[in-house]
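Q: what does this look like with LARABZUK bound?
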Amino acid sequence: MTLDIKICGLKTDDALAAALDCGASHVGFIFFAKSPRNVDKAEAGRLRQAARERAKAVAVTVDADEAMLDAIVAAMEPDMLQLHGKESPERVSEVKVRYKLPVMKAFSIREAADFDAVQPYYGVADRFLFDAKPPAGSELPGGNGIAFDWRLLASLDGTVDYMLSGGLNAGNIGEAIAATLSRGIDISSGVETAPGEKSPQLIRDFFRAVRAARTEGAA
Ligand SMILES: O=C(O)c1ccccc1NCC(=O)[C@H](O)[C@H](O)COP(=O)(O)O
């Protein structure tokens, strides 16, 4: 089974190049002013050119309105939209129709009951992203570098297409892959030296750890 790998919160040419050279399937750009990973629309449009034909460019937004989404879509021509706020199923549908793009809907998970919120989005969102619930006081719905209990994912039907996210890094990705049926993984702060500062070396280390875990799992 292939495993999609999304490197999120990219802002620089060297980090993007490392992600693409390592074989990232998805590269994410954050449009959220309070995030240290927030990127200017035009800059994201410039950066995403390198990803064409190599990886899917994902625009990550939080409860964005039409004006903001229109501007992002026009400036960077994403391949996918990641909705990381409290967007309702109706809103996800509207966004899909308006932009004719696949939508990945993010959910914050801390306990089993958090998966109850996912049900109304089946058949609406194209993919799910399960991330850890932000810690108290965090202004960021994502990118907090904390993991949730992956055993909770066992309650999901095996056909659910999701990306596992939250607090992944080269040290724990082997355990994460072994513990879940995830078809995709998503990482941000685990390949940073400081909030928003992606490290090409940490990106390479992460991919090396993924490859080692997959080889081990296949043996
Ligand atoms: O990363 C951010 O700063 C961010 C801000 C607002 C909404 C979403 C955000 N990130 C979304 C992602 O897809 C991250 O990769 C995901 O939350 C995992 O982050 P991390 O735990 O740091 O690996």
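The mean pLDDT is 96. The two ends are 14 Å apart (CA to CA).
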